Amino acid sequence: MSFWDFLWLLLIWTPLAVLWGVALADIFRRDDISGGPKVLWTILVLLLPLLGTLIYLMTRSAGSAEEARAATDRARVEPAPPTSAQQLTMLADLRDRGVLTPEEFAAEKSQLLGPRAAPGDDRAAARVPEDSAARPAAPAA
């Protein structure tokens, strides 16, 4: 393969193949096009790769870019905040390694779990949620 053949391949055919692949992927990804038009666009792009791809990319709706952006945003996954159990495990690990003193551990644990009644405190029983069956029925309007 000569230098000019390689240059022709690198600068012309490779970008065209990428553009062709992007057009085909976009045709199948779009939800606003039903089955029939998808088949016709696919045939046009496959039979006339350069012309079909250019026609498709010029005539596609402006909403396609917004759909692609929305799909990208949906694909991003943000990590969930740690649960109370995970935070307690982390605090226990820090205490076991000596990073936290027992007092610091107890303070962090009480802050994490919220105010709790001390053992033997009668207020603990008052905080137990009532059974829904024991609640009086709401008056009918």
Automatic annotation (TrEMBL):
Localization per Swiss-Prot or TrEMBL: Cell membrane
GO cellular component, one term: plasma membrane
Transmembrane segments: 6-27, 39-59
UniProt keyword list: Cell membrane, Membrane, Transmembrane, Transmembrane helix
Superkingdom of this protein's organism: Bacteria
Main subcellular localisation: membrane
InterPro entries per the UniProt record, alphabetical: CLS_N, SHOCT
Residue span of region Disordered: 107-141
Domain called Cardiolipin synthase N-terminal: residue spans: 18-58
Biased composition (Basic and acidic residues): 119-133
Entry membrane topology: Multi-pass membrane protein
Sequence ranges assigned to domain SHOCT in this UniProt record: 87-113
A Pfam family it matches: PLDc_N
Protein name (Swiss-Prot/TrEMBL): Membrane protein
Lineage: Bacteria, Bacillati, Actinomycetota, Actinomycetes, Micrococcales
